[in-house]
């Protein structure tokens, strides 16, 4: 996957003390291959590499004490820029209610699920959404949206299979006006491939409802295909943004990287799982960090904040700031994560945990692994938790006995943890936008 490949390229770069122009050019050639292999659009790659090369060779990178770090930083910043860093990506719902939001995309992209996620998220922002089933071709589609609506306790407008989708949307708007709904979420039909009949239908819905947001829902797993389809939808519908789904899967990266550059439209939200609370705001810089394998600590903290009492989250943040990333803060984070379900998605956000996940695969389910990790950390003294470097052989033996695990288990955890800690430190050194600066922001 993309992250691992970047890791390999940068490892070579880091291995050298000083860098020559040749070193940088070599590294960029490899970055280029990595991106092309990840199915990133050719034109996008070309511009990207040119931008990084200009910055890497033009500045004082070679003279700096940490040239490899500088190059990686430039790559990260350019990746973020490619994905729309610095733009306001939030949904724009500032209009007279009911505000229509239209979701469109191919069949299976995740429209219906995302409609539910969006409704739930708007509800949490104290809005009052109405779900509108405008996919009338498969009776099951309306049923599916109704099921979603029931799960999150959001009303689904009553429509019948076979009705004209434009009429349904218009009736839903009238109903919303009468009943105090402030947002209409339109779940439109998809096809397996782009087809002009469907496009015409979507254009008619758009022209009648004039949605404030027209969001193209793209399946991140389909890579470059998703980008091409997004471009077609954009040409016909002039979309306002993209929701990238299934970013919890393996094939992340490619589509996220080119979709903004190819369509000129921002990725606004990302789907991180099948559950209806698995929708997140898209942060280009964090995505860039994630692609580069540094873990997405910030999204993790944000997620923690939305689920855990704010008090807890504030305490955790203060502790992180005061003590840094220690085994104790690590354990507290894990305990919060446990309250939140979806272990795998969250684990990926912890620096270093991506690799750990891989090691764990086929061994034990993460939940069991979590209990083990917790038991081990609990068996440590406070001092040990604050400074794992003092954990010598006899301490490790004592901890293994106390936690009902083996010395290997203890060793493995400490190894993993210290890798994660190193990465955190690296992130903090990455200038004013490092972890600390960002955590305050
Ligand atoms: P639609 O045909 O575009 O309406 O797609 P659906 O909403 O029916 O979703 C198709 C499948 O993708 C379903 O099995 C969903 O559970 C799944 N899905 C949707 N979003 C996500 C996501 O963000 N992550 C994962 N893993 N699955 C998703
Ligand atoms: Mg659907």
From TrEMBL:
Reactions listed under catalytic activity: GTP + H2O = GDP + phosphate + H(+)
Compartment(s): Cytoplasm
UniProt: GTP binding residues: 105-112, 187-191, 245-248
Pfam families tied to this protein: SRP54, SRP54_N, SRP_SPB
GO terms of molecular function: 7S RNA binding; GTP binding; GTPase activity
Family matches, as SMART domains: AAA, SRP54, SRP54_N
Top enzyme class: hydrolase
HAMAP family: SRP54 (MF_00306)
Name of the protein in its database record: Signal recognition particle protein
Organism: Geothermobacter hydrogeniphilus
């Amino acid at each position: 996957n993309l992250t691992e490949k970047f890791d390999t390229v940068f490892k070579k770069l880091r291995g050298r003390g000083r860098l020559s122009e040749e070193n940088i050019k070599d590294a960029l050639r490899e970055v280029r291959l990595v991106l092309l292999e990840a199915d990133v659009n050719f034109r996008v790659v070309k511009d990207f590499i040119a931008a990084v090369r200009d910055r890497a060779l033009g500045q004082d990178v070679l003279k700096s004490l940490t040239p490899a770090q500088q190059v990686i930083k430039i790559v990260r910043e350019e990746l973020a820029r490619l994905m729309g860093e610095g733009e306001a990506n939030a949904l724009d719902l500032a209009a007279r209610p009911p505000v229509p939001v239209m979701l469109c995309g191919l069949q299976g992209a995740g429209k219906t699920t995302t409609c539910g996620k969006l409704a739930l998220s708007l509800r949490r922002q104290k809005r009052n959404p109405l779900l509108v089933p405008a996919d009338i071709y498969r009776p099951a589609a309306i049923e599916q949206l109704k099921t979603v609506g029931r799960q999150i306790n959001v009303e689904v407008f009553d429509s019948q299979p076979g009705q004209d989708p434009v009429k349904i949307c218009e009736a839903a708007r009238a109903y919303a006006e009468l009943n105090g709904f402030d947002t209409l979420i339109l779940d439109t039909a998809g096809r397996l491939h782009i087809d002009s009949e469907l496009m015409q239908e979507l254009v008619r819905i758009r022209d009648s409802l004039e949605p404030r947001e027209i969001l193209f829902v793209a399946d991140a797993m389909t890579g470059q295909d998703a980008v091409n389809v997004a471009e077609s939808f954009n040409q016909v519908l002039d979309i306002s943004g993209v929701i990238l789904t299934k970013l919890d899967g393996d094939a992340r990266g490619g589509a996220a990287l080119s979709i903004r550059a190819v369509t000129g439209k921002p990725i606004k939200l990302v789907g991180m799982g099948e559950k209806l609370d698995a929708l997140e705001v898209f942060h280009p810089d964090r995505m860039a960090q994630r692609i580069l394998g540094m873990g997405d600590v910030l999204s993790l903290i944000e997620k923690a904040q939305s689920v855990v009492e704010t008090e807890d989250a504030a305490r955790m943040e203060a502790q992180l700031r005061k003590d840094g990333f220690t085994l104790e803060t690590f354990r507290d984070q894990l305990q919060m994560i446990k309250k939140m379900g979806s272990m795998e998605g969250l684990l990926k956000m912890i620096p270093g945990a991506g690799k750990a996940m891989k090691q764990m695969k086929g061994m034990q389910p993460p939940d069991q692994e979590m209990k083990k990790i917790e038991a081990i950390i609990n068996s440590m003294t406070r001092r040990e938790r604050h400074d794992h470097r003092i954990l010598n052989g006899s301490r490790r033996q004592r901890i293994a006995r106390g936690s009902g695990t083996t010395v290997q288990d203890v060793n493995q955890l400490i190894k993993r943890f210290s890798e994660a800690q190193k990465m955190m430190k690296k992130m903090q050194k990455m200038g004013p936008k490092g972890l600390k600066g960002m955590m305050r922001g």
